[in-house]
Design brief:
290 residues, alpha+beta, Ribosomal Protein S5, domain 2, Alpha-Beta Plaits, eleven-stranded mixed sheet
């Protein structure tokens, strides 16, 4: 079984408070993309879980793919094993959901491969134990999120093509959220009435932005330089806690032309925003025998 693990962008990220348990109250708009990592799953003859992750230098017990597989085994009582090959495209510490998406695809894929038959709600609950962003990838739809990111409302967004630029640095999400200089008092906004689930583009343009951006750019001048370079083509902003920055274009051609001018010290890719996760679409094809 071969499945994608798509990237995400935070088109909006507002931090409206901090809870007594240390978690932050957020409002964010997750935009799924048609570009990301890829995972291959092969059944083993024992109950072991093995992961081949190329150059990704993370101990096995800390790898979210391994943890997701073991969590699903424990929850379902499954006695099967699996070998997982992870093809990484998404950078570690990039703010585009690489590890979270990999974990979600692992839960979704093994739930089908191992015939665990857990509901999507239960898989999302398991995902929440792995990370705040995992549930949106499990549910597989571009969504407005509140709480600590677990309260999800599926939305339809206007079709855009995005240039995502990856500076040569990695940002620790925990370090950013724990920093005393982080703004934590943004006013809450209300999701407007959705017509057939579609989000109004003017509302999105009015509220787009990222409360982490000022702090991250102060701590990492290279990220500021990246955004300022991208700003010459279209409005650019940070995604998540960084390090990646992005800008929206009306055509893939315009985004590709900007990418062609990218300085050599940075990497980038062009992707299209999608409403449904490519992982869900692929799983549906597999289930249908396509």
């Amino acid at each position: 079984m071969l499945l994608p693990a798509p990237a995400k962008l935070n088109l909006i990220l507002r931090i409206i408070g901090r809870r007594p348990d240390g978690y932050h109250e957020l409002q964010t708009l997750f935009q799924l993309l048609d570009w990301g990592d890829e995972l291959a799953f092969e059944l083993r003859h024992d109950d072991a879980v093995s992961v081949q992750a190329g150059a990704l230098d993370i101990p096995l017990e800390q790898n979210l793919v391994y943890r997701a597989a073991r969590l699903l085994q424990a929850e379902s009582g499954c006695r099967s094993g699996v070998h997982i090959t992870l093809q990484k495209k998404l950078p570690h510490g990039g703010g585009i959901g690489g590890g979270s998406s990999d974990a979600a695809t692992t839960l979704l894929g093994l739930n089908q491969l191992w015939q665990c038959n857990l509901s999507l709600d239960r898989l999302a609950q398991l995902g929440r134990a792995l990370g705040a962003d995992v549930p949106v990838f499990v549910r597989g739809h571009t969504a407005w999120a509140e709480g600590v990111g677990e309260q999800l409302t599926p939305v339809e967004t206007a079709r855009h093509h995005y240039l995502v630029v990856m500076p040569d640095c990695s940002v620790s999400t925990a370090a950013v959220f724990g920093h005393p200089g982080l703004t934590r008092d943004s006013a809450a906004i209300t999701l407007p009435h959705l017509r057939e689930g579609r989000l109004d583009s003017r509302w999105l343009e009015q509220h787009s932005g990222n409360d982490c951006q000022a702090l991250v750019e102060h701590l990492y001048p290279e990220i500021r330089a990246t955004r300022e370079w991208l700003q010459q083509f279209a409005r650019a902003q940070l995604t998540g806690t960084g390090a990646c920055v992005f800008a929206a274009f009306d055509s893939a051609t315009a985004a590709a032309e900007a990418l062609a001018d990218l300085p050599d010290r940075w990497r980038g890719f062009v992707a299209t925003g999608v409403q449904q996760s490519p992982a869900h679409r692929q799983l549906a094809k597999i289930a249908a025998g396509a």
